Amino acid sequence: MSVDTAVETKTVFGAEVPQPPQHGAAGGVMRGLNFGTGLIGGIGLAAVAGWVTAILTPSSASNASFAPMEPTYVYLAVLLGWVVGFMLGMGAFVGPLRWVVGRDITHADAEYMAGKDLGRKRYWKYTTDHKVVGIQYLVVTLFILGFAGLLAMLIRTELGMTWTSLFTPSFYNSMIGTHGIAMIIGMIVVISGPLGNFIVPMMIGARDMAYPRLNALSVWLLVAAVPMLVSSMFMGGIQDGWSVYQPLASQAPVGMLGYQMTIIIFAISTAIASVNLMTTILTMRAKGMTWSRTPIFVYGIFAASVMGLYAFPFFQYAQILGLTDRVFSTSFFDPLNGGSVWLYENLFWLLGHPEVYVILIPSMAVALELMPVFLRKPLFSFNFAVAGIVGVVALSGLVWAHHMYMTGWAPAANYPFMLSTEMISIPVGFLVLVAIGTFWRGTAWTRLPLMAVYAVIFNKMIGGVTGVYLSDVPADQYFHGSMFVVAHFHFMLMGAGLFGAMAGIAFFFPKMTGRILDERVGSIGLWTAFIGFQITFISMFVAGLQGQPRRVLDFDDQFNLSNWISTIGAYIIGIGMLIFLSAIITSWRSGVIASSNPWGSKSLEWQTETPVPLENFPVLPVVTERPYNYGVPDPYEAELESIDEDLTEKAGTK
Amino acid sequence: MSTSTLPVSPTTGEPITTIARRARLGLWLLIVADVAGTIALVISYSYLWSLNVNGGWAPPGATLTANQTNSTLPTTPSTATFAVEWPFWAILFVVVVATALMWFGYRSARSGNHAGLMVGAGLSFLVTVAALIFQWIQMSTFPFDAGDGAYASAVLLLCASNIFHLFLLLFIGMGIFMRARKGLIDKTNWYQAQLLSYYMTWVCIAFLLGAILTTFMVESPNTDPAIFGTFKQQ
Amino acid sequence: MSADTLIPEEPEAPTNRPPSMERVRSWLQRPYARKILILTVVIGFLLLPLAWLLLAAMNQTGAPASEIMKDIEQTVFVFTLVSIPITAFVFAVLVYSLIGWRQISGDEPPMQDSPAIRTNTIGVILWTVASSLLAMFLVVWGLVELAQITANSYGSISADEQPGQKSSEIINVTGQQWVWTFEYPEHNGLTSDILYLPLDRPVYFNVTSKDVIHNFWAVELGVKIDANPGAITQTGVTANKLGTFNVRCAELCGMHHAFMQTQIQVLEQDAFDSWVRESGGKKTS
Ligand SMILES: [Cu+2]
Fold it and tell me: Do C212 and A650 touch (CB under 8 A)?
């Protein structure tokens, strides 16, 4: 161990740091790898794996129902080959292998991998810079949401054309399943991915995430998952709703493997991203940033990470068990051979409900984060905002079985689960209180991000109140499995979640892209979508009240009117979303150049230059005050004091 | 490194103690996710055990009744018997030995005993290989196949989870050994060996859970489950 | 409203109003306070018809046809009423924020900040107490109603021990892709694909499935329970209205899930008996 004799050093942030030996040019083998080699690796290995499997599988191989197993084996091999090959081609395995052989990464390597001096090419590589990862997340998420939105339009078209059928029942079922799971995946990452990665490290005054290479891994695993999900549409599709209840899912065509592999990979991506965000937030906050000085958005992302971390493995294992049922004929969910449908439902909803808060909490947090900036006053009752988020996280794991009131799995359990579910309205109510308290007497600077918050709070109220009916077992006995449920969770996930994401993207757009989001076009898109949203889902509530089950492509004539209105509304949403998307695209390409702090925010992320330098802060900041230090002394306070003085005086004179 | 100054990360310039603290936190969080997944398996095993749906938990040598075949989903008669219990405990013992060796190696590294580190990490790696082979033999000699009822499925998946854990340990253990050989793990920079020791300890617990389940929850307590597709009990 | 820290320690204040009342009075005199309260009341009254509209939508095909459905509708009605005040207040603040408190547009951040209200003890306590009481009310209401509904469904068997009660009817419901089969085990195992129910007699359902999960939803009767493969679930109802109602499958069960529906015929006891006779079953006791 006499390496020190020849140790090279490098100046890192002003300190001389000894370096491991540099082998070849900075970046090593990563220099030749990018998205193109990833595609080549993925498609190549998928083709080879599929071909070899096809040759090796005896043509007589069949399962218990005498269905040939060859397509199952081949499709699974193709999917596995794709993931491994793609990640191999991207260079995901380079770091771990270098670690094993002890060839540690030097500062020059790290700078190369962070995309230094690579220009636009860095967006196509396994880049570790959190800002690049944030942008990659944004683009992938927009793609997923757009794909799922297109399916939504097709679904509503089918439901609106009550006089005929556009699609076969199988394809219709496959569309609702794919729409559902794609939207869920998209909504889970739409804030935590782009904003969590791009903004949170800057917001807490850090130079990068805790584990930059894991950060790249999480986004590229998500990218690898997308084609698997889309491919399943061409392999018979996911005909079982987004929840793919068993044993219906085991009847489905091989496309179900696409769903299962997507979830397995996505769960790994989420676990890694959650660990990364949590570690970053816990250990890398700037000097002086105590918990009471940490912005609420950071709390929101942290809470979402906590829930994603403990809840996703249940979903992942549910899909692993389903996959082994399908491929190796185990019988976890096959009731003929001792499998239980309730096992699947429990595992699924152990994720399924926390996941709702994984979507909602970041969207509420981003709304609360931007309100003080546009109302020029502090966040109302910061402690209550934190208490609300903590309360939701604490209860999130105790409410899953309210999705199973009507399954009969444990009728006695309905009492405690109703209790815990209705209790969660208290912490959620805290968040609403903080929002209206911040609106209270504020002079609203009515820019697009703030206007979106009005939409969020409005939708959140409707979603919350309708959720109260569903949390109640007797009322749920009517509403469960009906269109009422569909309308309710769209109010929550889309009305509060997606509009919150739109607020967040509009708010952070100048920092992320260096340009201002076109206010006029963006607002037109936002409000068009908002109006369409109300039309669609309020009439869907009516359909549910009338008794229309969900996930049907055909229904009694009494539901025609509400479905027609719903479909018209859906088209309006579609138009609004396209307008909003066009605002994003045109502003990104040629919008007004933004100053480094166009909103006049006091938060750390706005104090850096735009475009943000690679290391975010030339000198790490020190935090000395609470967040949201806006506002002037309350004039009414003076008045009140004078009342008190008057009283004191009167008391004195008598 | 014989220098007295604390080593720093070559990429960020932060002291290695900071990096170590961060890595430990990240490991604990990853273990949380792993625990959740293992709990999912435990739930699967014990829930199916308690329900014995359609009498299909593990009918030893039984064939299906006429009622059961009277359904839309065809099935094959099951001939499952229960697995032998002692291999689960034996494999657990081997993994515990590997973990103890890793702990020994890590403690040696901390006290500057490089030979101890090499012996601990190297032997730990070899014993892990042995555990993997043992686990593989057990899995391929069960008296049942994956298709023989819920018990067979649950046991096989517990074993598959064990194999997955062992592969992870092999990869990391190999890294620790190679890095120790290169002198990258020493008195001042030992946190990676520590992380592996922690993780192996959790893996032991996961193995223990599997051994407990397969030993103490064998015959299902539900002896008169409903017959599939009918309103009769068995 | 203001921070309570400002309340002076004045044990012998001689005014006839305590200082806190004085403060509430001065708060009510602020221009926005009354306007928001009025706005809340107006929005509340605008939302009030919803309580009846929701039920009107639910009742379009003849509901409620059972005591259970009546309980469900009562729950919906009460929950709507109790959520209106809080919804109206939040909406009033949103509206007033846009039209009442000053608003500005423009490209530059506003020069003038708003009042720095970091918290308000009275407001926070009021909100917490109100929302907790509301949640408590919902929980208690829900638990009581659930117990009642359970008694009306599972409890229907034990009810026939009581004198004067007509005996109950057992029906085995089987879901299968994509039909419902109703078996009357007390009548020679008579089966039907339309659900015939006797009026005013407790009916006890055993529910199962022969393939995937279905959900047995007797819409106007307010009965809903999953039909699970490999398990028998139980529920029950007493139909108290003559007529034709709907059974729909409320759990996605494959290709023709949408068409997995059938009718319920609630008949007088005589008509029910003659249906049983004509279909080959034994007359009921
Ligand atoms: Cu069905």
Answer: no
The token pair that represents A466 in the structure block: 């309708």
Q: How much distance in Å is there from the Cα of C227 to the middle of ligand 1?
A: 8
Q: Please report, as a single letter, which amino acid is at residue A647.
A: L
B234 lies in a domain? no
Tell me whether C233 touches chain B (CB under 8 Å): no
Residue-wise pLDDT tens digits, B58-90: 755 544 444 444 343 334 444 557 788 888 999
- Which pLDDT score, from 0 to 100, does residue A469 have? 92
Q: What is the mean pLDDT of chain A?
A: 89
Averaged confidence pLDDT in chain C? 83
User: What DSSP designation does A515 have?
Assistant: B
What residues flank ion ligand 1 with Cβ within 5 A?
A: C 214, 249, 253, 260
Cis bond before residue A96 (omega within 30° of 0): no
The answer, yes or no, to whether residue C285 has pLDDT greater than 50, is no
Range of the domain at B135: 85-218
Indicate the average pLDDT of chain B: 85
Biggest distance spanned by C-alpha atoms of chain C: 91
Model confidence pLDDT, tens digit, residues A346-356: 999 998 888 99
Nearest to C230 among B72, B228, B231 (CB): B228
Residue A338: name the closest of C253, B65, B230, B228 by CA: B228
Domain harbouring B170, CATH code: 1.20.120.80
Residue, of B11 and C158, whose pLDDT is higher: B11
Q: Compute φ and ψ for B233, nearest 5 degrees.
A: -100, 160
ipTM value for the complex: 0.90
pLDDT in tens, A354-387: 899 999 999 999 999 999 999 988 999 899 999 9
pLDDT at site B70: 39
Spell out the SS3 assignment of chain C. Answer: CCCHHHCCCCCCCCCCCCHHHHHHHHHHCCHHHHHHHHHHHHHHHHHCCHHHHHHHHHCCCCCCCEHHHHHHHHHHHHHHHHHHHHHHHHHHHHHHHHHCCCEECCCCCCCCCCECCCCCHHHHHHHHHHHHHHHHHHHHHHHHHHHHHHHHHCCHHHHCCCCCCCCCEEEEEEEECCEEEEEECCCCCEEECCEEEECCCEEEEEEEECCCCEEEEEHHHCEEEEECECCCEEEEEEECCCEEEEEEECCCCCCCHHHCEEEEEEECHHHHHHHHHHCCCCCCC
User: Residue A391 and residue C148: Cα distance in Å, rounded?
Assistant: 31
Q: In this structure, what token pair is assigned to residue C69?
A: 């459905």
Domains of chain C: 3-9+17-102+122-152 (no CATH), 165-278 (2.60.40.420)
State how far the Cα of A218 lies from the Cα of A271, in Å rounded to an integer. Answer: 8
At residue B83's C-alpha, the angle toward residues B81 and B87, to 5°, is: 165
Distance to chain B for C115, nearest Cα, Å? 41
Q: Residue A256 in 3-state DSSP?
A: helix
CATH number at residue A422: 1.20.210.10
**Block residue for tokens 């197993």:** A69
Query: By residue range, what is the domain housing residue A392?
Result: 128-605
pLDDT beyond 80 at C162? no
Residues of C in contact with A167 (CB under 8 A): none
**Hey, CA dihedral for B176, B178, B180, B183, is it positive or negative?**
negative
Alpha-carbon distance of A605 to A616, in angstroms, equals: 9
Spatial distance between the Cα atoms of A37 and A89, rounded to a whole number of angstroms: 5
Region C104-119 average pLDDT: 80
Structure tokens at A402: 């309210």
Number of domains in chain A: 1
Q: Would B23 be classed as within a structural domain?
A: no
For A453-479, what is the mean pLDDT? 92
Cis peptide before C49 (omega within 30 of 0): no
Interface touch C54/A170, C-beta < 8 Å: no
- How many percent of chain A have pLDDT more than 90? 61
